[in-house]
Predict the structure.
Amino acid sequence: MDYMKLLKRANDLKPKNLLSGERFEPPQADIIYSGNKTVIVNFGKIASAMRREKKHMAKYLFKELAAPGDISGNELIILSKLPRSIIRKKIESYMKEYVICPQCGKPDTKIVKEDGIVYLKCEACGAKKFIKKL
């Protein structure tokens, strides 16, 4: 057999969903403004999609946005008027730092604390990454 026939045969035999190209996409932040406050209406849904506690994610956002705020049900209220683009970038940076595995790129991770050290542990590949404590 020549090379092209072997290549075609190999492509035909490999699993179809081997590289599906899927990329983890949490829900887009639904942001409204109320006076001098910024409200992320679907904050609970975003935190749930990332499998993180709302409190942890909120603490990160308050620190990164340098603004105080509060969680009210499934909404995050930030006591400052901030542009949508900055909030979305901070949510994306949270996802990169505290959700996505640096080894395999999957979102199947959890935050684990061992001997006072906080790790991001991947349930897909088993990798561990030291993360900053909030």
